[in-house]
Here is the input.
Amino acid sequence: MTNPEAKKYDLCIIGTGLAGLAATLFASNRGLSCVEVGQIGEINFASGFFDLLGVHPAGEKHAWTDPWAGIDALVRDIPEHPYARLPREDIQAAFEEILTFLKEAGLPYIRRMNQNSGVLTSLGTLKSTYCVPHAMWNGVEALDKKPSCLLIDIRGLKGFSARQIAAALKREWPDLRTARISFPDSDHLNEVFAEHMASALILSQNREKLARTLRPHIKDAQIVGLPAILGLYRTQEVVSDLQKLIGVPLFEIPTIPPSITGLRLKEAFERGLRTKGVQYLSQNRVLTVRHQADGHFEVDMGRTTAEQTVRSRGIILASGRFIGGGLHADRKRIKETIFDLPVYQPGNRTDWHRRDFLDPRGHLVNRAGVEIDESFRPLNSSRQPAFKTLFAAGSLLAHNDWKRIKCGAGVAIASAFGAVKSFMRINK
Ligand SMILES: Cc1cc2nc3c(=O)[nH]c(=O)nc-3n(C[C@H](O)[C@H](O)[C@H](O)COP(=O)(O)OP(=O)(O)OC[C@H]3O[C@@H](n4cnc5c(N)ncnc54)[C@H](O)[C@@H]3O)c2cc1C
Here is the structure.
């Protein structure tokens, strides 16, 4: 039975995390009509950095300066890894397209073409990544050159400590000092939130007040580092205005999750995709999918009960892992939640985690996920494509272990590109 009222699309993208957003962008840029549906996922908690390949083999903690050389080694050693499904040129093209789009959406990223860059975290550790939001790039250069630098703590902001960062870097960066300020008009509050401060800084009068608070602390500092609060959107304007007001360059350091930088990324995508005519349904879930005799899909979606049905020629499943809800673990096994696709996983639950939390071999549960063919199509129990036009992308994919390999955003972007390209080829 088909529903005659169902609105028709070329592609239905399930998931509004980075993989789903990237897939929707690639599809709409190629003239496909798209509906995208999803709720909260990893992106809401993410740092906003785009890792491509940081560490491999993860157990040996072998860090790569050149991420492309790291990918070559990774796909030699783990031929099932999602990166092994794409030539390097496709991964490069995918990044180029995403970065161009984000620049046009007012959220430029900066990278060194063939090199990872070091960035500071809110706890004073160093992280290596591939693409850095523009508001953090001055921090990458400062970390290299170690000029006289002032780091700012904000009274009442939890999980961020400029003093801890300075203490951790004391030996290698002696010209790092800190100051603690109150965010304007928040003296009476015990706790302040990055989201509220970011919203306040959209108004120029609040930027002037913050600049007045910062100025007396600057002294001989050549650069100032702040927690990431410089606007949820229009960040370029906030950064450039504040830099003019205080007279020295600024950079942001991501706060603990949920970080403004992940939300900022999601906001830029949503805004840009809507202007491309994408039907974007945030706060909705896919409840059931029916595969029709003609090969198309009918998808029921809503908050708790079906509120609308769409019909599409293909689906890209970018439903994430346990945070996003694409995978669910019960007492016995890990399930894929929408199609009940087979999930690659250790034989039994006792093997999911090692006894030692910091075991260098990592936990096998982190490699669990949906296995795909060369065209990013999930496999059924006979190891054949489950459906001709069902594709999968992002952290849902098996053999990924992105947290340790440092390839979260890279796999999301590259696999989304591969899935859309395969849909166009197969559905000609
Ligand atoms: C705390 C944290 C920090 C991170 N930091 C970094 C970093 O520094 N660098 C980096 O490269 N990566 C980082 N990542 C990882 C990166 O954000 C993810 O790997 C990437 O976003 C890929 O996610 P995804 O789109 O596959 O899944 P998710 O972001 O989890 O999205 C899954 C989506 O599927 C939707 N969904 C699930 N089930 C349904 C359903 N039934 N119907 C409709 N929608 C559904 C969810 O609502 C959600 O929108 C971080 C992640 C976290 C959690």
Notes: The mean pLDDT is 95. The first helix runs from residue 18 to 29.
